[in-house]
Design brief:
alpha/beta, 9-stranded mixed sheet, globular
């Protein structure tokens, strides 16, 4: 069974070799490796071409810069595998990741296989040896995406393998960040069976200048739009309540980051956003505090932000020595 691995690439010359090495050296060999060059201006394309000369499984798609969603969609449009995986070009995999995941497709007739991922800051080794397996079916599937009282939602696309038939009519929303939220909601809505391994097989690399790090920008609030789309499509009152919690928790996290690490100078409308979203956050504070999903320190941060935005940031910066 062929696995198509879609790797968007944009100006990652310092990290790309590590990513590609982790794919071409997978113990599972039946791979179609689709590298989408999203208009890179550094040596990324040259690096990919060198790898492609040595490994015929690599296919290069060149396109104008359009962002992560656009690149993933371009990869989906040309993928021919029965199973689809996504890998960000500054991240990397344990070498047995795809073999373990593909065994589940063969043994369990799953629509999705999902494994653990860990945020890393260097080449640290993950716990990929000792793991447990859990199977989710039908009504459990969407609940797993949304999260329960003790576990948050499952949002990333990179630690999941999808049966290609599931993604036939699903694409990422382009021009937005947090694109995984609505993409996965659509997928989870039609999936009938998931196999989950809790083994840590995906290295999610944290670096300065990546989309997910640094000062708050306007696109940081895209996740709220994505959750609003999810809420609009849900029918169960209980599921809507969980999705509302996820949205409010995202608002809290963004505001906490803003008061702690600051706001990018390009985000000239931030004060308007802050005023509007602080109002929503304060209106829904008990949804967070009574959720059962926040530890004591997180609850304290919620209360501080509710009482005084600037004081919360001052305390957070002293605590983190920012």
């Amino acid at each position: 069974m062929k696995l198509s691995v879609i790797i968007p690439v944009y100006n990652v010359e310092n990290y790309l070799a590590r990513c590609l090495d982790s794919v071409i050296n997978q113990t599972y060999k039946d791979l179609e490796i689709i590298v989408v060059n999203d208009g890179s201006t550094d040596s990324s394309l040259e690096i990919v071409r060198k790898y492609a000369k040595e490994d015929k499984r690599i296919k290069i798609v060149n396109k104008e810069n359009g962002g992560l969603s656009s690149s993933r969609n371009a990869g989906l449009d040309v993928a021919t595998g029965e199973v689809i995986a996504f890998l960000d070009s500054d991240d990397w995999l344990e070498l047995n990741a795809y073999e373990l995941a593909m065994n589940a497709f063969n043994d369990e007739t799953a629509d999705m296989v999902w494994f653990g991922m860990k945020s890393v800051y260097d080449d640290e080794t993950l716990n990929s040896q000792n793991y447990q397996t859990k199977i989710y079916c039908k009504d459990e599937v969407l609940a797993v995406f949304l999260g329960t009282n003790k576990k948050g939602p499952s949002l990333s696309s990179c630690n999941k393998l999808y049966a290609s038939k599931i993604l036939k009519n699903i694409r990422f929303i382009e021009g937005k960040t947090s694109e995984d939220i609505y993409f996965n909601f659509q997928a989870f809505s039609i999936i009938k069976k998931i196999v989950r391994y809790d083994a840590e097989l995906y290295h999610y690399f944290q670096r300065n200048g990546s989309i997910s790090c640094g000062r708050i920008k306007q696109h940081s609030f895209d996740c709220i739009e994505m959750w609003n789309k999810v809420i609009q499509d849900l029918k169960s009152k209980e599921q809507i309540k969980i999705a509302e919690f996820n949205k409010i928790h995202n608002i809290f996290t963004i505001l906490l980051r803003a008061t702690t690490f600051g706001v990018d100078e390009s985000f000239v409308e931030f004060e308007e956003y802050k005023k509007a979203y602080l109002k929503i956050f304060r209106k829904n504070i008990f949804l967070l505090l009574n959720s059962g999903r926040l530890d004591f320190k997180r609850k304290l941060a919620v209360i501080l932000l509710y009482l005084n935005y600037n004081l919360c940031g001052l305390i957070a910066r002293k605590k983190l020595k920012v």
